[in-house]
Amino acid sequence: MNWGFRGKEKKEEPIKYIEFYNQFENNESTPLKRKIVFKLKKAAGHLLAFIPIIVFFVIAALIYSNRNLCSEGYEYINKQNYNKALECFNKAIINHEEENRALLGKGKALYNLKKYNEAIDIYKKLLDKGYNKKECHFAIGCSYYNLEKFNEALMHLEEAEKIGDKEFDVLEWKAYCFIRLGEYDKASQLCNNLIKEGDNTYLVHNAIGLVFLGKNDYKEAIGEFETSITMNSSYEDAYLNKIETLYSSNDIKKCMDFCNKAEKLFPYNDEIYLYRADCFSTEGEYEKAIKEYGRGLKINPKNIEIYSAIALQYFYLQQYDKATDYINQGMKINPSDEYVLKLKGWVEKESRPDSEKIIEFVKQNYLYLDKVSDFQEKCKQFSMKVNPTFRDVEQFINSIKVKEDRFSFVIANDEYDYIQEEDKASQIYTEELGKNIQLVKVCSFTSRVGEEFKTIIDGISQPDKKTLVIDLRDNGGGSSVSANFMLDMLLSKCTTVSFTTKNGEEKKYSSDERYTKFKKIIIWVNERSASSSEVMALSLKKHLNNVTIVGCPTVGKGVGQLTYENRKEKYMIFLVDFYWSVEGENILGKRITPDILINNSEETSYRNTTINLANSN
Q1: CA distance 276 to 242
Q2: Are 294 and 425 contained in the same domain?
Q3: How far apart are CA 33 and CA 200, in angstroms?
């Protein structure tokens, strides 16, 4: 249903089912073709006078029976009992193959049973007969859409559009096809035209929301989905699309809150539980995620995506036996599912001895590998320890570290627990330093800090008239993903930072054109500001002309690390694996020198300097 993100591709599908014109039910005049032959004995000649009457009653009985079956079938359609409806229509067709009403009913039943290929065959058969080409093309277009054959869907929808009066339904489905094909401008133009022509419906606003979502304009997308919900509070797709947008914009708290609201309205929709589980997973709450996925599984026990998701959580928890159990259950549903097979390969790879995995981790990622002496011999000795202890791992990492490497190390036990708890706790707070001066203190770049920063920034009214102060003192870094998510909120379209690996491969983080503009930005740093803190300070300084850095020179950590974690033994390796640079500048060994130096650590010095800067012209 992620419409394109998590496999939830069909949320944008219009909720309307295919409606058939009354003419198919009320204006039927198809003649019977089946001949009824009676064999009469010569001795019963006196009955010949009754033959016309008998024939009349037999034919009438067949017609009555056939039409009763059709009527019964449509009653089942109205009750959404599509299997029973299909039985009725099949019997009607057997009794009289040319009964168009029965064929149309069968097509509708098959469509609602999601047997789209069979439905297409029925409608094409009716097209060959020349019956109501507009409705048949429309039905075929909708069926192809649900089969994700969007070009074929468009072809039939356009044929339907050519016939008779303009139908808003047809144009709405065309808009959804354009969206699924990534042709957002065409979809947007079509939706705007529909509104101008009077089709200002919840379906159209939902489609416009999907256009904005496709363009990553989350704020506008949410507005359109909310309009759709206001127009039709029971329109399930708009709720799911708003949830998707909140999740995609990394607004995890709001996403979970809205999931709770949607659950009350649609308690049997498994996708709501999946999104809430995704939120827990994003925040590293894997046990809670498993519980939520399990709730979705009770509703939809044949959803292979849920088995894969649960397996992935156990993979993250390094509980590989349980991950394998859910992989196997998923393979019973579809043994050739690409993602399940990929997970199976990951689990098999991670089930190897720790020493083997650590050696591979170092070989693939260590930035200074080409400078390590006797590396193969050191690996050979370490590989003999199948289940190495923390001390064994620490000794191996120290043995391969080169002299210039100050930032590769191993932590364990209490330090490991501290990092786990730090990641769960809030690492940000805010206060007003004075009129139009907003201070945001970032203690560490944990996985959650970006979401908290976004909430604060979004809550500042008239930011272009205010000074934003970002306190990065004593912040030794953390997640580069979180740091760049925060930069994306403050910078227009640009490359925020570039990473270069030992193989010379370059990875770039970028921001888009949407950002929050402040009158001024002031950044506080000190001698313990490092890594992601330095990335943030330098990138803001390089890309904006209203940034002032205040404090004392930073650490100068122009490299980043990749981690290897063993949850059971409670240790973690931090291994230097890339250089980083902003606009070509790397600060390794150079540090960032503030624009305004403060030679003491007094809080009042930072505050007074900042207030003066903020109030100056």
Answers
A1: 13
A2: no
A3: 48
Same domain, 338 and 429: no
User: Is 343 in the same domain as 492?
Assistant: no
Pairing label, strands 547-551, 596-597: parallel
Question: Are 375 and 400 a contacting pair, CB within 8 Å?
Answer: yes
* Residue 340 structure tokens: 């399940």
Task: Enumerate helices (H) and strands (E) in the chain, giving the number of each.
Answer: 26, 11
Spatial separation of the C-alpha atoms in residues 173 and 163, rounded to whole Å? 16
3-state secondary structure of 411: strand
At 8, list the tokens: 């939830």
Closest CA to 272 of 237, 301, 248, 302: 237
The values of phi and psi at residue 434, to 5°, are 175, -175
pLDDT above 80: residue 161: yes
The per-residue pLDDT for range 98-146, each reduced to its tens digit, is: 578 889 999 999 999 999 999 999 999 999 988 888 999 999 999 999 9
The encoded tokens of residue 347 equal 């689990």
Label residues 173-205 b or e (16+ Cβ within 10 Å = b).
Answer: bbbbbbbbeebbebbbebbeebeeeebebbbbb
Q: How far apart are CA 367 and CA 266, in angstroms?
A: 51
- Rounded distance between C-alpha atoms, residue 496 and residue 450, angstroms: 15
Supply the pLDDT for residue 600: 84
Which residue bears the tokens 């943030």? 536
List the domain range (segments joined by +) for residue 373.
Answer: 354-405
Can you tell me whether residue 574 is helix, strand or coil? Answer: strand
Q: Which of 64, 87, 113 is the last residue of a domain?
A: 113
> Dihedral of the CA atoms 296, 299, 305, 309 (nearest 10)?
30
- Give the separation between CA 193 and CA 204, rounded to whole angstroms: 10
Residues 282, 252 contacting (CB under 8 angstroms): yes
